Each structure stands twice: as structure tokens, then as C-alpha cells.
Amino acid sequence: YKCDYCNKEFKYEGPFQDHIRTHLGERPFACEVCNKTFTSHSYLQTHRKSHSDVYEHICPECSKGFHKKYYLQIHMRKHTRERPVKCEYCFKGFYSSGNLAKHVRQHTGEKPYSCDVCGERFSTITVMKNHRDWHFPENAYKCEICHKNFIRKETYRKHLLRHQEDKPFKCELCSRSFSVKFELKEHIASHSKDRPFACAECRRTFKTLSNLRRHAKLHTYRPKW
């Protein structure tokens, strides 16, 4: 079985169909706990374990838990700074084959993910999904305090925390305080010269994931509401 989108070949029809869904953006398997959707039943089964507090594999460096040994092995490379997967074009190293695949598209210009609403194509499924959401403004989450709209539920929830007065997360470098831990992590990155987050569309790099996501919106279609 050969994929018409990226020419990847499969021995069995099941994995082939699961792969095709990644290009089409189809996610028919939904978690009954949080409603998160997946392209295959095996991914759903793996996700279900995330709702369990029991972790079989624990990182000896930071005590973070994982449900699968493979995820722990990938995580450990962040501590050891090991990047065994190399790009054949520029020889840059990566933690995992998934990160390498996204990077290689910067060299090839491949855009295997298409929006099923307008047909526009993207190099990563994340950017494609963000783009697709803008076609349905009626599904947006609206903040009742400042009336700002959000397409993604997790972004909306993080935004609500910014309105609370309590800011328990403090930066040890400059004493600034934040209402959510994620914002503290992003702020700490601003003290560093590293720019580890790269745009899959234009290769521009950023210090924080939020800055990358904000930039990625420039590559997506956003109708006026």
C-alpha cells in the first residue's frame, strides 16, 4: 500500500489507513474521558493511559513518569542532549524521528497536510489544524472578562488564569511572578540566547513555543469575525 500524498509504503492495510487519516486530518477515535480525538485506535489506547496516575517508567533525572518505555527513552535524550537522528541535508541532529520528519520538510518544501475545507496545504498537521479551526468561528471560546476569542480550548483556559490576582510562580532571575507555571517557563527562556523552536514553514526560530505559535498564525488563513 503506497500513500499518494508522501509515497510512504505500508505492508498492511490497517496502518496504511491510519496513515492516510494524518494527511486528511481525520480523527475518528475519541477518548470517552476528555473527548480528545486520534487517527488510530492504537493511539487512543495509548492516550487512555494518560488518565491514569500510575506510571511504569520513571525518569531517574527529574522523576517525570511515562506510560511507555519508548517515551522515557526519547525524554532521556533531553537530559543527555543526545540527538542520534540526523538530517541528510544539513546533518542537524534531533531527539526523535518525528522531529526530524518535520525538519526535513523545510528542505523539501513538502506540504502533505491539506485543509478539507479550502484545500490549502501545510507542512505539519498542527499548523493545518490551527488553520482549519479558523473556518469555524462559531466554535470559538469567548472570555467573559475581556471578550477575547479563542479557537482552542486549552488556550482559552490558560488565558482565564491570567485574570486571577494570585501569581504563585516566581522567576528566580528577575523576581517577576506569573499566574501559571507555563508562563514562568516561557519567561525563563527569555533570559537565554537559545532559540530551539523553529517554524516548519519558513525556518525562522524563536525562544518560546508561544512565540512560534503566534508566528505560525501568519501562515494560516484567518477570516475576520
Automatic annotation (TrEMBL):
Gene3D superfamilies: Classic Zinc Finger (3.30.160.60). One of its GO terms (molecular function) is zinc ion binding. The keyword 4Fe-4S does not apply. SMART domains: ZnF_C2H2. One of its GO terms (cellular component) is nucleus. It is found in: Nucleus. PROSITE patterns: ZINC_FINGER_C2H2_1, ZINC_FINGER_C2H2_2. Keywords: DNA-binding, Metal-binding, Nucleus, Repeat, Transcription, Transcription regulation, Zinc, Zinc-finger. Residues 1-28, 29-56, 57-84, 85-112, 113-140, 141-168, 169-196, 197-224 form the C2H2-type domain. The keyword DNA-binding applies. PANTHER family: MYONEURIN, ZINC FINGER PROTEIN. This is C2H2-type domain-containing protein.
